[in-house]
Amino acid sequence: MSRTWNWGPLPATLSAALFLLYLWLRYFSPYSPVGGVGLVAFLAAWVGGYALLGQYVPRRWRTPGRLLRWNALLALIGLAHTLLWGLLTLAISPDLERLSALIRGFLEVGVAIQATGHLIFISHLVLSRPRREKLWSVAGFFGLTVLLLSLRLLSPSLAPYLMPLLWLGILPLLYFSQWLEDVATRQMPEALLLTGSTVVGLFLGWQVLPSLFFSELPPLYSALYPLLLAVLFLHGGWLLIPILLRLTRLSRTDTSSLELLTDFLARQQRSSSPQETIDVTCETLRKIPAVGGVYIELRLPLEKTLVASTMGTGPLQDSLRGLLRQRSGTESYVEVLSSLQKFNRNLPDLSAVLIQRPMSLLHGAVLSQTLSVGILSRQPDGFEERDIHLLTTLTEQAALFLENLERHSYQEQLLTARKEADFLRETREALLPPPPPILKKIDYHVLFEQYDRTIGGDYYQIYEYPDGEVVDFWLSDSAGSGIAAAYQMAQARGALNTVWLRHLSPDALILEVNDALKRVFHKNNFLAATLLRFDLRRKEYILLRAGNPEVFYWNPLTEKVEILRPSGIVLGNASSQIIGRILTPERGKLLSGSLFMIFSDGFTEATNSTGEMFGTERLLDLFQTHHALPAREIASHILQAVRTFIEGHSLGDDGTLLLVRYTG
């Protein structure tokens, strides 16, 4: 793929080297003729600066209004520059010839750079909409400039005769400065202030101050003087033209834009859907004289997209869609493309404006919709600054109407959602486990981090049998989330509390619960569970695991952590005959200091901002490090570690942790 060679840095670098050479010659050879070096440096800076401005400065920063401001700022900087170096020449003794010549050289280089900047800005201002006549007038003026500067070196006696021609060359430039009409009409005070400050700055810097500081003009200053005077005349013309335009066209107003905007707002007030809103926006944008085509996309969550277009299917619409989708969808932007041919040579040489406005939905911070608008010009370089401002205003108003539609929809849904939330909250409170019992010879603590404050799928319960010698610890996790998971949890809770009354063995209890769930569960529903039974009379524990994560066990005899993984599958999805073949109890002696940790996957699958999960290894390390602490403190350390890891965000799922220590 070929790349365009940016040749602007080459003459710019050459000019910098020649200016340094000029200063070097001025210091070491104050009386030598070095004007040629300075003039060549000036011409190279002019060519390189014009190329760099066109290649590296975006078009929206090279509009006539902004270039006019840059011209005024450059004139004021040049005035301060001349005053500073001029005062330095007065402060230095005439006997220090080299130093005095060097300081004058700095002044000359600054004036040359200032003149270069003005010519660069003038070139872009006049050629803002290039035509053959403009090109010839600019080429003629700058050709006369180069000829005059050359004659200053080769034949100084002929140079003064060309000065009137150079000043006459200003008239075509003034004639083709059509941008002044818009600036004068819309920003009259600003236009007068900027052009006035430019004229004053140039006059003081090039006419008044040099006569105060020098008995005769330095070489480069003298060579550039006719050109500086011509530029001064041009800026004076720019000061007069807005006044004349203001006097002759005082009654001109932009009523068409006002009427267009008023009609747009009235029609949008009657829009009742997002599609109708973008259709009205598309039709309104198409009525702007500079607009040749419009393409609008409203991208909604779940990959849904609404489209409005004034162009038929084809390469132009496909190109606009592709350019819009190449940009980020999370930030607002307004981008002006000078020509579509920069992206595809087969496309017409038309300008395009790309506008994007993301809008967060009230339904949640994660969801958003994005309004993307691509607008083609009717002719090459067809958008002015006021056109872009109007296009942006209409798009912004469309986005506000879309947000208003979504807000009304959200308010209606909110009323229904509040009733549902109250129902879910009451349901959740009814399904909470009963208060845990006070147990002898057992220290335990339950940590329950609920993801959804209204309802969830994790359920735990501690059941002490009437004789006080057997205690069951139950932890289950329902499939899915929300109401479906809560429904499964409610069914499991009801089955458990019924089966516990029958004083069954642990494996029989699991199978009875499975039978009860299988009768009511859908084929895609299931329940992962862990049952840990303490038989205090026999000093024995029995562990059954039906799809839940492994259980950590601190063995006080070996003083090591063991990972208990008895086999088993989830409940409610298979027959008890199949589950009974797979379910294998883990049995062991209860030793004083035995510590068990049962947990759901809400903790191990908690993720941080990079998508990394907390994982089983980190949980195991925390359990091993803090096993000697009371159960409540162990849970506190684990919770703090998980919250630090996920950087204060939500777990993303219910998380339950059950720590049980036998102290008998």
Question: How would a crystallographer describe the biggest sheet?
Answer: 5 strands, antiparallel
The number of helical runs is 20
User: Could you say what the CATH architecture of the largest domain is?
Assistant: 4-Layer Sandwich
Report the CATH superfamily of the largest domain: PPM-type phosphatase domain
Anisotropy-based shape: elongated
Helix/sheet category:
alpha+beta
Rounded mean pLDDT is 80
Strand content: 15-25%
The end-to-end span amounts to: 79 Å
Explained architecture:
The chain is of the alpha+beta class and 664 residues long. It folds into 3 domains: 64-248, no CATH class; 259-410, Beta-Lactamase; 432-662, Phosphatase 2c, domain 1 (4-Layer Sandwich). It is 54% helix and 16% strand. The chain is built from 20 helices and 15 strands. The protein has a 5-stranded antiparallel β-sheet with strand order 2-1-5-4-3, sandwiched between helices. The chain has a 5-stranded antiparallel β-sheet with strand order 6-15-14-11-12. A hairpin with a 7-residue loop joins strand 4 (352-360) and strand 5 (368-377). Helix 11 packs parallel to helix 14. It is elongated, with a radius of gyration of 41 Å. The relative contact order is 0.06. Residues 249-253 have low confidence and may be disordered.
